């Protein structure tokens, strides 16, 4: 149940009216009823402050314009503005001063306390609004910086990938030229019958050239993932020695980038850049004869 009471205890002696209002509010509150009561009695303002489950509230009043702002101030009782309004309306200052001197000291202290609470509340609200604005600006700046950083990261990754592609193009061109030179040297060695350059030196040189190749990111590139899998070597793997065009079997790893490869009856040390993993050969089926 909600009970609304306007100016409870008014129209009689202020002290008796305030005492009666307090007693009535206690009786209604004892029944568990919600009450909203308006009053000008300072005793009821103190009652709202001291009683459990009771809270003061007031409507803000602009003393400069002598008009209400229609802002509800919860937790702050309203102060009396009668003397201030009388002064603004032109009542002689001497009369207003005499009225102030006749006002009860407790009432003056209460009004001063209320005025101080209103001022401090206004300061807190202004600071809260300022902090809220700062937080909003900080969040906006954070989102902007995050967006710019992500754009920078994407641009950086793209530049790195472009550089790798360009580097691989240069390496590929160099490998083509190196293959031509090696082929020419082999032909000359066969023609002369002398080996001025050892075969393993040629293979090592080509392996060093292959090591310059840059691997692009493989996250979304199936072709490149398969290419990488062809160079994931283990002992016993079947491989193709690209410089010879011959198949072999990996025996053991002899260095970071070198493997011992069984080529027929020969065992050779070959750079992993010259190797490519292949599927094992299927055994040939014997043909039936009649």
TrEMBL record:
Any one Gene Ontology BP term: mismatch repair
Keyword Ribonucleoprotein found: no
Recorded coiled-coil stretches: 107-162
Signal peptide range in chain numbering: none
Annotated InterPro entries: DNA_mismatch_repair_MutS_C (IPR000432), MSSS (IPR046893), MutS (IPR045076), P-loop_NTPase (IPR027417)
UniProt protein name: DNA mismatch repair protein
Gene that specifies this protein: mutS
Native species: Lactiplantibacillus plantarum
SMART domains in alphabetical order: MUTSac
PROSITE patterns listed in its UniProt record: DNA_MISMATCH_REPAIR_2
Annotated ranges, domain DNA mismatch repair proteins mutS family: 1-17
Cell wall biogenesis/degradation found in the keyword field: no
Keywords per UniProt: ATP-binding, Coiled coil, DNA-binding, Nucleotide-binding
Highest taxon in the source lineage: Bacteria
């Amino acid at each position: 149940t909600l009970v609304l009471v306007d100016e409870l205890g008014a129209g009689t002696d202020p002290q008796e009216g305030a005492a009666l209002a307090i007693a009535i509010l206690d009786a209604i509150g004892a029944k568990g009823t919600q009450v909203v009561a308006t009053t000008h009695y300072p005793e009821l303002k103190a009652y709202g402050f001291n009683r459990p489950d009771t809270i003061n509230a007031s409507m803000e009043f602009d003393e400069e314009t002598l008009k209400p702002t229609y802002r509800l101030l919860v937790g702050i009782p309203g102060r009396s503005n009668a003397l201030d309004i009388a002064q603004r309306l032109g009542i002689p200052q001497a009369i207003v001063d005499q009225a102030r001197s006749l006002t009860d000291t407790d009432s003056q202290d209460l009004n001063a306390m209320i005025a101080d609470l209103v001022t401090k509340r206004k300061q807190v609200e202004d600071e809260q609004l300022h902090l809220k604005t700062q937080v909003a600006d900080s969040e906006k700046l954070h989102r902007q910086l995050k967006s710019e950083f992500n754009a920078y990261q994407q641009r950086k990754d793209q530049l790195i990938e472009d550089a790798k592609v360009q580097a691989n193009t240069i390496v590929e061109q160099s490998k083509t030229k190196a293959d031509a030179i090696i082929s020419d040297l082999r032909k000359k060695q066969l023609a002369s019958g002398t080996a001025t350059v050892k075969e393993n030196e040629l293979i090592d040189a080509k392996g060093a050239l292959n090591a310059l190749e840059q691997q692009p990111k493989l996250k979304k590139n199936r072709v490149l993932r398969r290419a990488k899998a062809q160079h994931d070597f283990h002992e016993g793997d079947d491989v193709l020695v690209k410089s010879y065009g011959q198949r072999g079997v990996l025996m053991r790893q002899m260095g970071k980038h070198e493997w011992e490869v069984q080529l027929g009856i020969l065992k050779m040390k070959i750079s992993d850049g010259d190797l490519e993993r292949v599927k094992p050969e299927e055994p040939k089926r014997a043909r039936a004869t009649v």
